[in-house]
Design brief:
Blueprint lengths: L2 H9 L4 H20 L12 H20 L5 H19 L9 H31 L1
Length: about 130
């Protein structure tokens, strides 16, 4: 199977139902992990929670983009950021959790990185499609 066919099969518009299911799973896991009372995880890296925010919200934006391929990018950004802000507001009232602007920065960085990855993959698909 050619690279372009493989990428098109995984990232094509026809597989959005699978991505919708994955988006639901990602959203539920993300909400569970970010809204449960904090559990201290020992790490040598001081800001490991920012890495989790980056990965979690990046995965959410990535799956949202592929689950709803007709959404404009700014809608994916707004929905993802809206979720991030909502999580931080709710965290402010959960024991051992706190509102953090730095968490929102990590969320945004993950969202933008994921959208960049999707854009690059779509560009590669279009470039290879022209050569077929």
């Amino acid at each position: 199977m050619k690279l372009n066919n493989l990428l098109a099969a995984v990232f094509g518009r026809q597989v959005s139902k699978t991505w919708k299911f994955l988006l639901l799973i990602i959203a539920l896991v993300l909400l569970y992990v970010t809204l449960m009372p904090s559990v201290h995880v020992h790490s040598h890296f001081r800001h490991m929670d920012k890495v989790f925010h980056f990965i979690g919200f990046g995965a959410f934006a990535f799956a949202t983009t592929l689950a709803f391929p007709l959404f404009k990018t700014y809608w994916v950004i707004l929905v993802s950021i809206g979720l991030g802000i909502s999580v931080e507001l709710v965290q402010s009232v959960i024991p051992r959790r706190a509102f953090s602007y730095w968490d929102m920065v990590a969320d945004l960085a993950g969202i933008l990185f994921a959208l960049l990855v999707v854009a690059i993959i779509r560009w590669i698909i279009k470039k290879f499609a022209k050569h077929d």
